[in-house]
Design goal:
The complex is a heterodimer. Chain A is of the alpha+beta class. In chain A, about 30% of the residues lie in helices and about 20% in strands. In chain A, helix 3 crosses helix 4 and helix 3 packs across helix 6. The chains are: A alpha+beta, B mainly alpha.
Chain lengths: ~850, ~450
């Protein structure tokens, strides 16, 4: 074999990654490789013009890839995103952004959403310290807490740890009692596990190396125009599909017939094919298994071997030299060679990484130009080992360090042997090594010094690469590089015989599947979002082929997404070099948009992925029963809520006829609009008359029984819980010592005698268990101008409030799927607004009493 | 320049260069981390508008470059220059290098760009900041060299050569060495041109003397320029080649040998096969003894057993008197044919067939068995499968015959390859096939008794 007669000048430094005072020889750009030093001077000076293939460009036929097959019928969910994992707190923007895992929020959400899981065992342990039934704890033991009271206390407060909420004596006792157990054990146990899990998920989000190498393969068929795509399908990616595809020179590839499939017992991570000596082989890697098939000329697979990998397989590769031979590497750092003659043979074993210490257990193995020499790679470097030599010896092919002028934090993501493609192609000794920053071409005859380095700048991890044969004799070979996010780049590699490999012309980027969005019809937001998510699904496989028969070279590119969709695009090699030829832009053909529409129609038929989890709707509110039972529920909001829960659009037929009281901002208020009429009355100074009217109405025959019924309902729920309602608390003055912040009250509240006397009255509409709370609030209000009438007024007012606002409370019943956090939030917001409205009533209601034209009319709004 | 002091500070805190990449727990950096973090809304201060627009602009330029939309890239580049006024010193200092990288690429490929435009751009960029002067000068010179403007390139390099800033750091020194070496290379080009002219002149001519004097001057200057860099570990093939050529021309054989020996055997240098090839070629020109040549090629054999010089090595070993050289000769041939790129090398197969027979006739069965033992489980399917028998016969009958002989010798006449070829009926090769059959019958390893 020839060796390049003269190599590019390169400085050779040994040392660790990111050695700073080395002049980076890769500072030169892509055109640096065009500047091969002239071998002899006269040759160059004569043809002074750059003899470059600048016009080398693969022009996509459509602005983006098109779906080849109908969408997979299994629902797909994008899974965890950065938003779910990272801390959203308000740290300022920094030059060096930092990812902070939000363990606290996750933990608190877990405690809220899965409180039964988190606390039930502890609750059982502490059962003797709780008194679940009975009125008051008459027990002398201070270690027994009455649950009912506790819940009552909790019920009045903001659930989200309102900083102004005060602690009751009981709560204090409870937290002292339960704190050490609840706080520490739950947080310690859960927190550790949760942090571990979050860190793992985050790592996986940044780099998911399971699909390294790609899970899509092309098995050439009898003719150049027909072949089979082999890829995993199904929600769990455990169905290996064989889809025959014909590549017509003129039009788009056609799927021929229904795909055959093999059901496997694990997700397929990598599919490799290789045709050696006319024999097509297919190797598949799953998490813990590898399998090998032989594909006949007719395209029928016959199983050859299944290997079990205990520690988990990370890579599989088929020998390009010997039929049926394959290399498997596992997380334990073992590389095995499987041959039909010798069976499994351990070639290499080292749990440590090659160059420096790196925690990743990812390993990779590939073949070299010598059939008995393998490359073994990990995140830090690549080594060549002789399968027949003594164990432990070998030669480093690539070292993550100053030799290749690697950056700090640079790691190997993919290594691939770029074997022989044809007689007039690149040296069959080249290896491609991809890191997150750069791409290196290393010749195994000159280890450690890359022959070519190019900064690919891909915005996602490059996990797939494929070297294609030259499209035309004498043309440079295209090298396809694919990132996990669907980003594609095409490089042109030249250099055969006595010349060193170099980039021929600038690399180009190819459209990714998210560029196809414009081919789809515009949808309603929900479906549009779903389509967008689907198109943005990470790529898990990539394969390209150039059917050689066509006069004009066409590159067919297939892409498999994590959602199980196969997309394809065709690229044509630009005929002649010229500045104008680059400017042409592809546009969507009617066939393409029709194809997309068909695909979309099928996609929308696929049911959306079920939510990952459904939170329990258990809450203490339900335990205590409905404090605020709803009245007759208008149909509209309920339908809206149902629609929201199901995630679909609200249509007119869901609503039936809209209640006339509901129209959004109507110029003419409906007859039922109490507030407007009241405001109107107040404006006109006829508040008292309105009030009379109102009272008359509320004491009408329609209202009274209803309210009574509600109360009986309430008391019955309570009786089931606590036997009888005790009003002993209600009689005790509100300035009980359990108030945590006495200074919050400016004056020791002296309950006005008028209030005492009218207690029965204003308490009419309020459940008795709420009366204490209500009284507390009343007491806190600065009631300077209390008049007996002023007190009597709130009664009906509160009743009217109580009568109307129970609507939001229906939410927990109506929509069980909604996360309960929102329920509780909503519920809490409700109760607080209620109490505030109640609290506001006495002072507010004075306005119409004192003078009808008091400029307070805007205020009442706040209460509602 | 006003930002000199800033640059000094910057060179001290070089380690916070990587801005966009952040390390996770594993020490690995992810260029796409920023994108993930960007999706999480933070309550704090956002990136400034200026920074947002410049980074967006940078993205557009890169995108346009990857789509070969040079005009569009140039338009965006026009707007990107604003980053030179970024209030963030760190970004402002990193900017010239980015601008140079992208800008030079645009100008290199832009259909309307000319050498003049490139020159103007390069000259401007050299003087924005001080850290990039040498790098840009070197690349500028390479650009000119590529366009055949040797004199301009030389002038550029001369300017850069004398340039100094602050204390001479090691990186500066390497760059200056590199610049001097390129200058030396340019001088070599002029020299070799003169040499060509000289060869046309008569030795007694007056012009010959001046010309040779001229050449001598050049070579002296060149040697000064090239020597410094060649001492630094690295791959300096073009420089070494031209330097040795000049030294040889002036009869400094010892100097040339020293340079080449150092280049090949210095342990600080990477194991560059070319270094050994150059040394071997030099020794061959020098008519060095065979022993010497063998010792050089022995090392090349260890580095690159697939090199085409290995066949020459085999010839040398075959001619040698030593027994162990004969053994090595067999090993070398087997070694060459191990490689995927050499499977169709007919010379190698011819040599092997001939030498194998010779060795077996010379009663060195043990040598053959030693080589064959490590190959017997994979050579049959690698070389001698029925697939190859068919395809070799179809493509190259001579190759098929040689391989058939080897297959027969190593595997016996039951071997599929041998059987297939021996069954073929070809008018031209009938005699040859008969010979092969005879040899196999006589010397095959498998049944040595027969």
């Amino acid at each position: 074999m020839d060796f390049p007669s003269s190599l590019q000048p390169t400085l050779f430094m040994t040392g660790p990654l990111g050695l700073s005072n080395v002049p980076d020889m890769s500072f030169m750009c892509s055109w640096r490789d065009a500047l091969t030093l002239p071998e002899s001077l006269p040759k160059n000076s004569e043809n002074g013009a750059p003899h470059l293939s600048t016009g080398l460009l693969w022009e996509p036929e459509t602005p983006g890839p098109l779906p080849l097959l109908p969408p997979s019928p299994d629902p797909w969910d994008p899974g965890v995103t950065a938003q779910d994992l990272l801390f959203r707190g308000g740290f300022t923007f920094r030059r060096k952004p930092q990812a902070v895992l939000d363990v606290t929020e996750q933990l608190s959400r877990f405690l809220w959403d899965h409180g039964d899981i988190a606390f039930a065992p502890l609750g059982k342990l502490m059962l003797e310290n709780f008194k679940l039934e009975g009125a008051q704890s008459r027990s002398k033991k201070k270690t027994v807490v009455s649950v009912k009271r506790l819940l009552q206390d909790l019920g009045g407060h903001q659930p989200w740890g309102c900083p102004w909420a005060f602690l009751s004596f009981r709560q204090r006792r409870f937290s002292i009692l339960g704190g050490p157990v609840l706080g520490k054990s739950v947080a310690n146990l859960l927190g550790e596990l949760l942090h571990e899990e979050l860190a793992m998920r985050w790592e996986q989000l940044l780099l998911d190396d399971a699909f390294t190498g790609g899970a899509l393969a092309w098995v050439p068929g009898r003719t150049a125009q027909v072949g089979q795509l082999v890829y995993p399908a199904g929600g769990a990616l455990d169905k290996l599909r064989f889809q025959e595809v014909s590549l017509t020179p003129g039009g788009d590839p056609q799927a021929l017939g229904d795909p055959g499939h093999i059901q496997l017992r694990g997700p397929v991570r990598q599919v490799v094919t290789c045709t050696v000596q006319g024999e097509s082989l297919l190797a598949v890697r799953s998490d813990y298994h590898c399998a090998l098939w032989k594909v006949s000329k007719q395209g029928r697979p016959t199983p050859l071997q299944v290997l079990q990998v205990g520690k988990g397989a990370t890579g599989i590769s088929l020998s390009p030299h010997l039929p049926g031979e394959l290399a498997v590497c596992s997380r334990s750092g073992t590389v095995c060679l499987w041959t039909p003659q010798d069976g499994l043979q351990q070639v290499y074993k080292d749990p440590e990484t090659l160059v420096f210490c790196d925690p990743s257990s990812w390993r990779w193995a590939d073949f070299t130009a010598h059939p008995r020499v393998l490359t073994v790679g990990d995140r830090t470097g690549v080594k060549m080992i002789d399968a027949q030599g003594p164990p432990g010896c070998g030669l480093l092919l690539f070292r993550g360090g100053a030799e290749a002028s690697c950056q700090k934090g640079e790691r190997v993501l993919l290594t691939q042997y770029l074997g022989e493609c044809g007689p007039k192609s690149l040296h069959p000794t080249l290896h491609l090594i991809c890191t997150q920053f750069s791409l290196y071409l290393v010749d195994e005859r000159l280890p450690l010094v890359p022959m070519l380095k190019w900064n690919h700048d891909l915005p996602s991890a490059p996990l797939w690469a494929q070297l294609l044969p030259p499209p035309r004799p004498g043309c440079p070979q295209p090298l396809l590089l694919g990132g996990q996010g669907g980003h594609l780049q095409l490089l042109h590699l030249a250099g055969e015989g006595a010349s060193a490999p170099r980039l021929a012309g600038p690399p180009q980027s190819l459209p990714s599947s998210s560029d196809s969005l414009s081919a789809f019809p515009l949808l309603e937001p929900k479906s549009q979002w779903r389509l967008q998510e689907r198109l943005k699904a990470p790529t898990i496989g990539l394969v390209a082929t150039i059917p050689s028969s066509a006069s004009e070279p066409v590159l067919s590119l297939f892409q498999l997404s994590a959602a199980g969709d196969v997309f394809h695009q065709r690229l044509r090699l630009q005929a002649g070099p010229g500045p104008n030829s680059c400017a042409s832009t592809a546009s969507w053909t009617p066939q393409a948009t029709a194809c997309c529409s068909r695909w979309l129609k099928d996609l929308l038929k696929v049911p959306p992925a079920p939510p990952v989890w459904a939170a329990p709707t258990f809450s203490h509110r339900r335990l205590l029963g409905r404090m605020e039972q709803r009245e007759v529920e208008p149909k509209g909001p309920e339908a809206l809520r149902a629609a929201m829960a199901e995630g679909r659009l609200l249509r007119q037929r869901d609503l039936g006829s809209l209640p006339s009281a509901e129209p959004p901002p109507a110029p003419e208020p409906g007859p039922e609009d109490e507030l407007s009429t009241r405001l109107e009355a107040a404006w006109e100074g006829q508040m008292a008359a309105w009030w009379e009217r109102q009272q008359g109405r509320s004491s009408g025959p329609g209202r009274q029984p209803k309210r009574r019924k509600r109360r009986t309902q309430l008391s019955s729920t309570f009786s089931s819980l606590s036997g009888r309602l005790d009003l002993s608390d209600a009689t005790s003055p509100p300035h009980s010592p359990d108030r945590a912040s006495p200074e919050a009250r400016p004056q020791p509240p002296v309950t006005p005698p008028s209030q005492e006397s009218t207690q029965e009255l204003w308490a009419q509409g309020v459940p008795s268990e709420r009366q204490q709370t209500l009284r507390d609030y009343m007491a806190r209000l600065p009631l300077q101008k209390d008049t007996p009438r002023g007190v009597s007024l709130p009664l009906s007012q509160t009743s009217s409030i109580r009568a109307t606002p129970s609507r939001p409370q229906t939410l927990p019943d109506g929509t069980a799927e909604l996360p309960p956090r929102r329920n509780t939030l909503r519920g809490a917001a409700m109760s607080s607004s209620q109490t505030s409205s109640i609290r506001a009533t006495p002072s507010r209601q004075q306005a119409p009493v004192l003078s009808g034209s008091q400029p307070h009319r805007k205020k009442p709004r706040m209460g509602f | 320049m006003s930002d000199f002091s800033e640059e000094l500070i910057r060179s001290k805190t070089e380690d916070d260069k990587e801005e966009s990449c952040v390390f996770s727990g594993t020490g690995m950096s992810f260029p796409w981390l920023q994108k993930h973090i960007g999706t999480v809304e933070t309550g704090g201060k956002k990136e400034k508008d200026f920074a947002q627009t410049t980074s967006a602009c940078l993205g557009f330029i890169q995108e346009a470059l990857l789509k070969h939309q040079w005009q569009q890239a140039a338009d965006y580049m026009h707007s990107y220059f604003q980053i030179l006024e970024d209030s963030d010193t760190h970004k402002r200092q990193a900017a010239p290098e980015i601008i140079w990288k992208l800008g030079s690429e645009i100008l290199f490929y832009h259909p309307k760009s000319s050498v003049e435009t490139f020159n103007t751009f390069a000259d401007r960029m050299k003087n924005i900041g001080v850290m990039n002067y040498l790098k840009i000068s070197l690349q500028h010179a390479l650009y000119l060299l590529h366009h055949g403007m040797l004199e301009d390139a030389n002038r550029n390099l001369s300017h850069a050569e004398t340039w100094r800033y602050g204390e001479k750091s090691s990186s500066q020194e390497v760059l200056i060495n590199l610049i001097q070496a390129y200058k030396g290379l340019l001088q070599y080009y002029t020299w070799s041109k003169k040499k060509m002219e000289l060869s046309t002149l008569d030795e007694d001519d007056y012009a010959y003397n001046t010309a040779s004097q001229n050449m001598f001057d050049h070579s002296w200057k060149t040697s000064v320029n090239l020597r410094a860099l060649i001492q630094t570990p690295g791959i300096w093939d073009p420089f070494v080649k031209s330097y040795v050529e000049m030294l040889e021309f002036y009869g400094d054989q010892d100097g040339a040998r020293e340079v080449l020996t150092n280049y090949a055997y210095d342990e600080k240098f990477p194991s560059n096969p070319n270094a050994h090839i150059y040394l071997y070629n030099f020794l061959k020109r020098e008519k060095a003894p065979r022993e010497k040549l063998i010792s050089v090629l022995k090392i090349l054999y260890q580095i690159v057993p697939s090199h085409k010089l290995m066949l020459e090595f085999h010839r040398l070993l075959r001619k040698s008197e030593k027994e162990d050289h004969h053994k090595l000769g067999l090993e070398v041939l087997f070694g060459v044919l191990d490689f995927a790129g050499c499977t169709k090398n007919i010379t190698a197969w011819k040599y092997l067939a001939k030498y194998l027979r010779q060795t077996l006739m010379g009663n060195h069965l043990a040598w053959v068995q030693e080589e064959w033992n490590s190959r017997k489980n994979w050579w049959p399917s690698f070389h001698f499968s029925s697939f190859w028998a068919k395809s070799d016969w179809k493509e190259d009958k001579a190759l098929a015959c040689e391989k058939a002989l080897v297959a027969g010798l190593l595997l016996g006449k039951g071997c599929r390859y041998f059987r297939f070829i021996s069954k073929q009926d070809d008018q031209v090769l009938r005699k040859k096939i008969k010979q092969i059959k005879k040899s196999v019958k006589k010397h095959s390893v498998v049944n040595p008794g027969l």
